Structures are given as structure tokens and as C-alpha cells.
Amino acid sequence: MSLEQALKEAYASAPTDRVIFDTLEVRHSAFRDDAGQPTAIRIVIGYEDITARLEGDAVLHPGEYVGFVAGAFRFKLPGFEEGQVPAMQITIDGVTREVVGHIESAINEPEPIYVTYRPYLSTDLSKPQMDPPITMELTKVTVTGTSVSGTASLSDVHNWAFPYEKYMAARFPGLVR
């Protein structure tokens, strides 16, 4: 079963009093706030901003509650077919001049732009409902007016370690005799 099919099934059987907040976080080392500190572009699909807690191993502000600005973006979750690198098209509409400036400065850098997708439940903003969240590399980025679009893909999924967790003697002393 693909991830998209599983999500459709979950949406169909989910209680009606809960809303899923789809969020995107766009990161690059060139993104700086007014104080010169590293920052990220965080967007939630909807009409109201939300404050939600990031996972404990997030790159920026791990375990902290951060703000996601209400906005519009389109995406289709990647499929995980054999022999293909998972990729998804992302379009963020109605971006501000500040966001366009961040994106344009990052496009000219050799370092990749990263995108993290996190779904949250309206009844539980204390953690993302996907563990770990999907983090992908954004390529082929274009800025047209107030719209930013690009292709997000898992850069080297074929060389990921399996199992993902590394079993080290320091953490698992039973491995050493």
C-alpha cells in the first residue's frame, strides 16, 4: 500500500472533529532573521496561523513550539516505487517579498534547500503525526511573481542504512562480549 493510499484510508476513517494541518518547513543556511539568526520558512495550509511543537531531532528549534504562517501550497506526497527516487512537486502561492528574497538568495548558493513536510492534528499540536517527518531536497526552484515552485526529492534514498538506527556498543552494551 502506498503512502498516499494509507493517508486516504486514514482520512476516510478519521473522526470529523479533528482537522489535519499540513505544514511545510523550507530551510537553507542563507535564511536569516533580522537578528542574523538562522531561520526557516514555515507554512500551514489554511486561513489561520498555528503554533506547533517540532520533533526533538529537528534541524532548527528542536522540541520547541514554533509558528507556522497560514498560506497556500500544493503538493502530492511521493510514491515509493521500486527503482525510482521519491519526488514531489511543490508550489507555494502568495509568498511575501521576504520569502522571495530568501528563496532567491538560496538559489544562488551551492548548498541544497531542504523541505520538511509535517502533518499535525488540530487536537494535538504537541508533535507531528508522522515520525519521522519527510525531509527532502528542493531542486529546480522557480520564482514567478508571488509563487515559488520546485521539485522535492530524497537525494540518496538508495544508500540509506537499513535498519535506520545504528546499533553501537555504547548504547547497546550487550553487543560486546
Structure commentary:
This protein has 177 residues and is mainly β. A seven-stranded mixed β-barrel has the order 1-2-4-5-8-7-6. The model has no long low-confidence stretch (mean pLDDT 82). The longest helix is centred in the first third of the chain and has 11 residues, at 3-13. The chain has one domain (3-175). 12% of the residues lie in helices and 40% in strands.
Outline of this structure?
The chain has one domain (3-175). The protein has 2 helices and 8 strands, in the order αβββββαβββ.
Indicate the proportion of strand residues: 35-45%
Q: Assign a percent range to the helix content.
A: 10-25%
Continuous helix count: 2
Major sheet: size, sense and barrel closure? 7 strands, mixed, barrel
Query: How many beta-strand elements?
Result: 8
Overall number of structural domains: 1
How far the N terminus sits from the C terminus, by CA atoms, comes to 41 Å
List the strand order in the largest sheet: 1-2-4-5-8-7-6
Low-confidence stretches: none
Instruction: Give the overall silhouette.
Output: globular
The whole-angstrom Rg is 18 Å
Order of helices and strands: HEEEEEHEEE
Secondary structural class = mainly beta
**Chain-averaged pLDDT:** 82
